[in-house]
Specification:
Layout: E1 4-13, E2 16-23, E3 26-33, H1 34-41, H2 46-55, H3 57-70, E4 79-81
Parallel strand pairs: 3-4
Antiparallel strand pairs: 1-2, 2-3
């Protein structure tokens, strides 16, 4: 079942940007590593990295939904996106 966006907010952390998605009534914590965002936009600047997240959020959310659907996890586990999870990674 595809995940849907739970809200527009997100949290910038030292290890990535976290955002919420929904599987029906359940909220799923998702995260994209800052290094992964930097690779998408080929930048190391944090402000630009946040801009990349905002610009590419729909693609990032689709990648999170795809990873959620193809992997098994415990309810408390975070869906963490790496470059291999993004379109065009190989």
């Amino acid at each position: 079942m595809p995940l849907t966006r739970a809200g527009d907010s997100y949290t910038v952390r030292a290890d990535g940007i976290r955002f919420l998605m929904r599987d029906g009534s359940f909220e799923i914590i998702c995260q994209i590593k800052l290094e992964t965002l930097s690779q998408i936009g080929q930048t190391a600047d944090l402000n630009e990295t946040i801009g990349i997240f905002q610009r590419d959020r729909a693609m990032i959310e689709r990648a999170a939904s795809n990873k959620y659907d193809r992997t098994s996890r415990q309810d408390y586990e975070i869906v963490v996106l790496t470059p291999a999870d993004l379109p065009g990674s190989g």
